From TrEMBL:
Binding partners and assembly: Interacts with ribosomal protein uL14 (rplN).
CC terms in the record's Gene Ontology section: cytoplasm
GO biological process: cytosolic ribosome assembly; negative regulation of ribosome biogenesis; negative regulation of translation
Native organism: Oleispira antarctica RB-8
Family: Belongs to the Iojap/RsfS family.
Organism domain of life: Bacteria
PANTHER family, per the entry: IOJAP SUPERFAMILY ORTHOLOG, MITOCHONDRIAL ASSEMBLY OF RIBOSOMAL LARGE SUBUNIT PROTEIN 1
GO MF assignments: ribosomal large subunit binding
Free-text function comment from the UniProt entry: Functions as a ribosomal silencing factor. Interacts with ribosomal protein uL14 (rplN), blocking formation of intersubunit bridge B8. Prevents association of the 30S and 50S ribosomal subunits and the formation of functional ribosomes, thus repressing translation.
Pfam families: RsfS (PF02410)
Protein name: Ribosomal silencing factor RsfS
Amino acid sequence: MQTEEIKQLVINALEDLKAKDITVIDVRGRTSVTDYMILATGTSKKHAQAVCDNASAEAKAKGLKPLGAEGRDSSDWMLLDLGDVIVHVMTEQARHFYDLERLWGEPSEAQEVQKSQEDAE
C-alpha cells in the first residue's frame, strides 16, 4: 500500500468512530522515522482506545501489519505505528499537554528567522 493510501485509510477509520480534531502533519524532511503523523482526539480514554483499535483493525484488513502499538491499556495517549504513518490518539487533556502540533508542525516565521540567523553565524 502506498503512503497516501495508508494516510487516507487511517483518516477514514478515525472518522468512522467520530474522533475529534483530526490533524495530519507532514514530517518528511524533519525526521527519518515516518512521513506523516496523524493526531486525533478521543472524548475519553475508552473512546481513544476504540478509535485506535479501529485504525489498527482497518490497517490489518488491508494487509498492513502495524510495526507497534503503545499505550492501549492504561494511557490517555495511544500510538499506532504503520511505518510511513504514525497515529497518535489522545484525550483532550493529553493532546493539549503534549502539544505535538507545535512540536512537529510547520516552523513559525519567527523560528525560521532565528534559524537563518544562527546558520549565518
